[in-house]
Hints:
heterodimer, A: mainly alpha, 11 helices, globular, B: alpha+beta, three-stranded antiparallel sheet, elongated
Amino acid sequence: MNTLPHPDEYEIIQRCLDGDGDAYAVLVDRYQAMAYTAASRMLGDADLANDIAQESFIAAYSGLRQFGFRSKFSSWLMSIVLNKCRDHFRAVRETVSVDSIAEVRATGRRDPEQEASARETTDAVQIALNRLPPAYREIIILKHIEELDYQEISDILGIGIPALKVRAYRGRELLRQALTGTGVER
Amino acid sequence: MKSERDIVHRLLDGDLPAAEKEAIVKQIQDDPVLRKEFDDLADALGVVERQGRMRPPLAFTASVMSRLPRRTASLPARVRAFLFSSRVLRWNMATAMALVLLTVVSITMIKQMTNVNQEAARTTAAPGSVVETVRLTFSDPAAKRVAVAGDFNKWRTDTHLMTRENGTWTIELPLKPGVYTYMFIVDDGEWVTDPDAESYRDDGFGYQNAVMKVSI
Lengths: 186, 216
């Protein structure tokens, strides 16, 4: 899934900047699965992921003048999606009581509602991902679902490659532990 | 155990040089502990990787597009679009005939206005723009060179040389209407007042300048 930028992206973005908003539909079609999957795996909630992914596309459109083609559009979009997920976690953390946080830490679960939702859909992978701290979820998504190389992940997260490898190491270990006992067939 | 895991994770990072990767793969294959460690992690990652990307709702693109803010194009972009956007011209015979009629009438009116303007220019030209030719003559058969200097040439003695015709020196001067003073210069040194001048005016040095009046 780690691909070179499409050759027509410069032209599409230029058309958007020139006022042809309809041209943006090509980029939305092209990257909607990437954005939705990342948001969904980060948040564990399909409706919320849909909202976050859509808002990310809208934010990217609004900020196209700042994009400047310094990276691939897909990398830039992915960084927006992950930022919005982090904003959501921050907002949720601020509204959850201290007791609830303590309970979550004790049980190793991040969000009981997400956990319940994921169980209903029998998505054992999502249950396991929900048990990972968000920073480890990010690296698992980028490295092992999107299959990006470390340089591109570094561009997206703004973290150096050695630190990313440490994070990937811990993320994989946590994922293995989290999958144990979920009943998922390996 | 820690170092064994390091080896396994380095392979899972997927960015090893070929030779190093080959060596680590062989090391894992030959060591049961390493092999179990690798298989456990690879199985866990395999479960995630097999899930792949998820399918967004069908109306995803339409929903995003309906929520996009209106973007106003920059002025250069609007000018470029105005000038170079392809357009389809729809026409019918009545419109075409009306355009032809409009063109003919416009050309006729422009021609008429041009004629009127030219006529007006001729009749209302400023006096300063009309030039009259004045002929000066001076009789001196013995002179070898005669020039005329005056306020029309800022009293320069080398710009307006007269020509000789049977002992008489002549020159034609294109001058705008007005009053001019002048003198003849004979053989590059002698200043001579025109004996046939219309009138004379003291030059302030004890001589008389000739005066001529040019009118339309």
